[in-house]
């Protein structure tokens, strides 16, 4: 039996794409994953994540990754539908994984509602979807997906940093370096596609600088 897991990385960041990744394994590989000490990507170092990323690729049955750009994220945030955006792409991933049982990490406060949102859009009704909070912590296959998503997103952020050539910090709204970069550089046309203008942090900067229009 092939089992799948889906998780995201970068939901709260003000910079760069939201990455959603799915991965599946032959159920007989679960012991191998346990021996690799797979766990939620947030609990392991970047170097360890990169190592496990490569090891996961060697033994997984299938993998599918979606990178959602800032403009698309902004459109859904403005209509309060970010969870719907995630369910939409998780459905796409579920359709492209070689697995009949797939566990997803729910971003919705109501996991059952999130589960139904994915299931109703699946064309393959033979796929069973299970949605839980903290699935990236409690399920080793979802933990594997979290590693794939996190390493992929980290690589995307590195690309952005190289293009911009300046310190953007971690990319998260609470980071003083990120706030400073946004305050000084948000007007640069070439940078705008990397910024989520629907985020409160950016709106405050725009308001403080008397900018009435949100740039996307």
Give the full name of the CATH homologous superfamily of the largest domain. Ribonuclease H-like superfamily/Ribonuclease H
Series of secondary-structure elements, N-terminal to C-terminal: EEHHEHHEHEHHHH
Discrete helix count: 9
| Strand adjacency order, main sheet | 3-2-1-4-5
- CATH arch. level architecture of the largest domain: 2-Layer Sandwich
Under CATH, the topology of the largest domain can be stated as Nucleotidyltransferase, domain 5
* Overall tally of domains: 2
- CATH C-level class of the largest domain is Alpha Beta
Radius of gyration, Cα only, in angstroms?
18 Å
Total number of beta strands: 5
Spatial gap, N to C terminus: 44 Å
The amount of helix comes to 40-55%
Poorly predicted runs are 212-216
Beta-strand share of residues: 15-25%
Backbone structural class: alpha/beta
Largest sheet, strands/sense/barrel: 5 strands, mixed
Mean pLDDT: 92
| Envelope shape | globular
């Amino acid at each position: 039996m092939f089992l799948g897991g889906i998780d995201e990385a970068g939901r709260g960041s003000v910079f760069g794409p939201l990455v959603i990744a799915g991965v599946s394994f032959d159920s007989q590989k679960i012991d191998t994953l346990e021996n690799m000490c797979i766990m939620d990507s947030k609990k392991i170092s970047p170097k360890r994540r990169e190592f496990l990323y490569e090891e996961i690729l060697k033994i997984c049955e299938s993998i599918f990754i979606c990178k959602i750009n800032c403009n698309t994220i902004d459109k859904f945030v403005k209509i309060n539908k970010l969870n719907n955006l995630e369910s939409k792409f998780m459905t796409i991933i579920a359709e492209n994984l070689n697995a009949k049982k797939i566990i997803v990490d729910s971003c919705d406060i109501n996991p059952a509602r999130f589960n139904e949102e994915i299931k109703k859009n699946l064309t393959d009704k033979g796929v069973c979807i299970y949605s839980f909070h903290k699935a990236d912590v409690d399920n080793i296959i979802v933990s594997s997906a979290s590693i794939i998503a996190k390493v992929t997103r980290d690589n995307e952020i590195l690309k952005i940093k190289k293009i911009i050539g300046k310190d953007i910090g971690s990319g998260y709204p609470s980071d003083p370096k990120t706030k400073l970069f946004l305050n000084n550089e948000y007007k640069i046309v070439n940078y705008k596609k990397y910024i989520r203008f629907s985020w409160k942090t950016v709106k405050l900067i725009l308001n403080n600088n008397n900018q009435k229009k949100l740039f996307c």
